[in-house]
Amino acid sequence: MQESFAFRLPQEIYFGPGEGRRVGEHLERFGKRPLVVVGQRFARESGILEDVLGSLARYGLEPVVFSGVPPEPTLEVVDEGIRMAREAQCDSVVALGGGSVLDCGKAVAGVLPNGESVVPYFEGAPLTRPGLPWIALPTTAGTGSEMTNNAVLTDATRKLKKSLRSPFLVARVAIIDPTFTHSLSPYRTAASGVDALVQAIEAYTSPRANAVTDVLALEAIRLLWEYLPQAVREGENAFFRKQVAKGSMLSAMAFANASSGACHGLAHMVGPEFAIPHGEACGLLLPPVIRFNREVLRERYRDIALCVGLQGGEYEDWGELLARAFEDFVRRVGLRTRLRDFSVPREALGRVVREERIGRSILENPRPMAPEDLQALLEEVW
């Protein structure tokens, strides 16, 4: 755990039922013509987009809607959003959707004042100017993108998924409205919630963890472990939805100021290669990562195990206990736990681990990981 640390979040965070329908009130100070970034169907079909546009209209704003962001936003999609925003002379961005939509929206907002395309910045060039002010309105309880300074994007040609990072990407306002998640299917509730749970576990075991992130991460783990299975079973229950949304928010606050870990790094390798949804990739990859790290994170895994009510003796292998309990948890919420469940051929695993895909989250793993270790972890969950 770090003794010296910085802690950064959006300037304003609003949490609670009904907060999302006040977006116009928060946005009017930033300009008059926001780009509203949404996904392919959910925001429109659920009626949430209509509510948000209505809120903007009440404050005299003139939104431009950029729709159709896919589950894995590509560089081409971000560039299309940049072009639309520039041509419409947009002065702010509202990102309404899951993590992919939020990542796309923040990338558009961040790059627009800096250049014509996201590509140079995806390749490592720094953003040198502040982006457009943007507001995050998540419709899932899971990815945490509303709190972070990074946008996860995909180079579809190279099947390369990595983060564009900059302090200029942090949202000016994050609005977490649990009612926006009520229409989520059981599957999307489970997949996004497991993503949030993994992020909280990785934040607690991160080399960048600190006194503040520890408190946030453990409370997030407790809430998600207890209430996510209930929200999956009873999606109309407002109390369960609120607890999961709260857990997701706290998880995001933690990992945005600590870091994600090797599980997320591996998920970014596996997901684009085999078209595995991110939440499910994280769910099946965390147990082997726990087992790999258990000798160096014994006390941290013990803390997590006790937090969720697991019982062990003085000499218990806490990592193994937690890994097995997490596997059971993933099955309980209806997600898959093996790569072969996604029709991944075993012989294809050899092409997954490539040097350009090994990002910071793997390089900073508490126990050093060689390429052969990563390959072994994938074999373990085939």
From TrEMBL:
Protein origin, superkingdom: Bacteria
Stretch forming the signal peptide: none
Entry-linked SUPFAM superfamilies: Dehydroquinate synthase-like
Pfam families assigned to the protein according to its UniProt record, in alphabetical order: ADH_Fe_C, Fe-ADH
GO molecular function, one term: metal ion binding
Domain Alcohol dehydrogenase iron-type/glycerol dehydrogenase GldA span(s) in chain numbering: 10-178
Residue ranges annotated for the Fe-containing alcohol dehydrogenase-like C-terminal domain, each copy included: 189-381
Listed transmembrane segments: none
Entry keywords, A to Z: Oxidoreductase
Taxonomic placement: Bacteria, Pseudomonadati, Atribacterota, Atribacteria, Atribacterales
InterPro entries assigned to the protein according to its UniProt record, in alphabetical order: ADH_Fe/GldA, ADH_Fe_C, Alcohol_dehydrogenase_Fe
Name assigned to this protein: Iron-containing alcohol dehydrogenase
